[in-house]
Amino acid sequence: MKTKRIARVVLFFMIVGMVIMLLTVQSRAASTTLKATFIDVGHGDAILLQDGNGFVVLIDGGDKGKGATVGAYLQSQGVDDIDVMVNSHPDSNHLGGLYDLLRTPEITVNAIVYGGYAGDTTLWFDFTTQVASRGLTPTPAQYQETFSWGAMEVSVLNPQPGLSNPESNNASVVLLINHGEVSFLFPGDIDISQENKVLALGTPVAGGHPQGCSSWQ
Description:
The chain has 217 residues and is of the alpha/beta class. It has a single domain (34-200), classed as Ribonuclease Z/Hydroxyacylglutathione hydrolase-like (Metallo-beta-lactamase, Chain A, 4-Layer Sandwich). 33% of the residues lie in helices and 22% in strands. The strands form three sheets. Strands 1-2-3-5-7-8 form a six-stranded mixed beta sheet, with no helix packed on it. Strands 9-10-11-12 form a four-stranded antiparallel beta sheet, with no helix packed on it.
């Protein structure tokens, strides 16, 4: 009887150990996920990235007035804290929704990233005013800069520094985001001529598109 009791105790702890191991593996698996959501804002972009540890990146926000659409989606996902807000370029159909969100007190924004080249529209100046009201200083993201955003490793492929009055679309921030074995390419609105210039620099996409990336437009 004593032997059977010992055997049952050993079996019990083996089962408990297996359950704990399974939960740990599932937790580790969850912490390595990266979710990319392309929010429908009509003509424009709004891309939400969430890693398994809760780090949130928002790339662009659609046109002015679309912040409500983006905000509603964030709310549906339980997101009220944006770790990094990226404006790829100052055209209204990328910048407007970000301006709306900055005027939404329920949403916290911890950092702003842009291409390093200012816009010349009223919307741009309104946007920078809202950024300043948040106590933030925009961080330029230009070629050869790298960032670590949560579990994401980020390489900036465009624009190049030191340009004089660059065309807005071709000065878009182009991001190659690596997460584990999967990469995403976010090309902004650069045209084919700028794509070729990016490739000619020997950037990481020169040998072909990374697995899981957005294709060039």
